[in-house]
Amino acid sequence: MAMINNHSSVSIERERSWVIDLEKKLTCNNAANLCDEEIQWKKPSIFRLPEFVKMIKPGVFTPKVVALGPYHHHKSDLQPLESHKERALHNFLKRGVKSLDVYVRVMMGVVEKLQCSYVDLEEEWKNQDNFTKLMIIDGCFMLEVMRLDVNHCKHYAPSDPFFGSHAMKHKVPYMRRDMLMLENQLPILVFKKLVSIEMDVDESEAECIVTELVVRFFVPRIYNKKDNLTEFIKSIHGFHALDIYRRSQLFISSKTPQFQIRKLPAYVTNAVMRSAARQREAGIKFKRSHSSALTTISFDSRRGVLTLPEVTVDDSTEYEFLNMVALEHIHAASGSDVSSYVAFMGALVDSAEDVQLLHRHGMVKNGLGSDEDFAKLFSRMSQEVIVDQGGNLGFVQWEVEQYCQRRWNKCCAYLKHTYCRNPWTLISVFAAGFAIFLTLVSTVVSFLQWKKV
C-alpha cells in the first residue's frame, strides 16, 4: 500500500512539474507583445524545408555538388569540394591587401545577426567561431564562382577543375543550380561585409556591387539590358541569392507599359481556368507581353486577348521554380507571385497541344526536347500549389472563364476554327454562301415578276 501511495505521489509531482513549466511558458508568451513577435519572425530568411515540401519533388531541394551554409555542410558526398573552398579563400585574400584577421573581426561583429538568418541551427553552429569561419569560407567561395569569366579565370590554372576556363562549361552550371536552393543560401550581409572590406566601400555600395554580381551570374537576360540593370540594382534589396533571383523574375521596368492590377469580386470564392487549347476554342487569342516578368499577365475581356510573358525552360527550371515557391511558402514577406504563376501555367498548359499553341505566339522557348515534357514539367511543379485568389492572377483566371462561358464567343470561335482555318474551305463556304444569295435574289425577282402579272 505504501508503494502505491509513493507511486501516486511521484505521478502528482510530475504532473505539477509539467503544469508549472507550461504556466511559465504561457507567462513569457503573454509578456511578449505582437510587435516583438513580428520582429522575431521576420529575422529568419533561410529555412530547413519540412518533409512534406521535399516530397513534392525529391532531390530538387538538396545540393548535389556544393554545400553552402550550415544545413548540408557535413554531408559526405559534398566533402570533396571543401578543400577547393579553401583555395578560393586563399586566392581571394591574395589579390587584396587586407588580412584574414580583418575579415574575421568584422564578421564577428555581425555573427549573431547572421545566425538569426537561419532557422533551427545545430549546436555546432551556435558557436560563433565555427559559424564565422563557415560564413567567410563559403562566402569567399561563392564570390569567386560568381566572378568567373574569361578574365577572372586567369587567376587560376587553365585546367583547374573548379575555377579554370574548362570548369566554366562543365562544373559551374551544376554549382549555379545548387546556389539557388533555399537550404543552401548565405545571407546577403555576408557578401556585403566581404566586398565592403575587399573594395574599401561602404555597405550601400557593396550591396549594389553584390546585387549586380548575382544578376550577372544568375540572370544574364537582365544584365544584358543596361537600363533595366541599373534600375533593378537600385530598387532591389534581397535576403540572399535565391531571393534576388526571385525578385528578378518579377521585376518590371518603369519603361514597360503598366497595366491595372485587379482583384476578384467579393462574391467569387474560387476561380478555375481551362487549358490554352480549350480557351482558343472559346475564342480567346494570345499575345506576348512586352516584359519577361512573370507578373505581366493580363486579360482584355473586350477583345478576348490573354497576354503572357515569354517563358524559357531547361533542365534547371524545375530546381529554380520550386525553390522560389518553397521560399514563398515559408517566408511571409516573400508574397506568392511565383507560386501563383506556377499554378496558373499548370492549368494553362495541360498537353503538348497547349505548348504548341503558345509556341506559335512566341511565348515558349522549350529546351527540354519535346512539348510533352514541357507540359509535364508544369504539371509536376503545380502540384500542391495554388493561385492566390486575392491577387491579379486569380482575377485573370476568373475573367478568362467568364469570357469562355459566353455562348456568342463559343459560336464565333467554332465557325472560325471550322471554316476559316483552310483557305480552300473558306472559298467553298464563300461560294456556297454566294450561291444561296443568288438563289434568294432569283426567287425574289421571280416573285415580283409573278406579282406584276
UniProtKB/TrEMBL annotation:
Keywords: Membrane, Transmembrane, Transmembrane helix. InterPro entries: DUF247_pln. It holds the Pfam family DUF247. The chain crosses the membrane at residues 424-448. This is Uncharacterized protein.
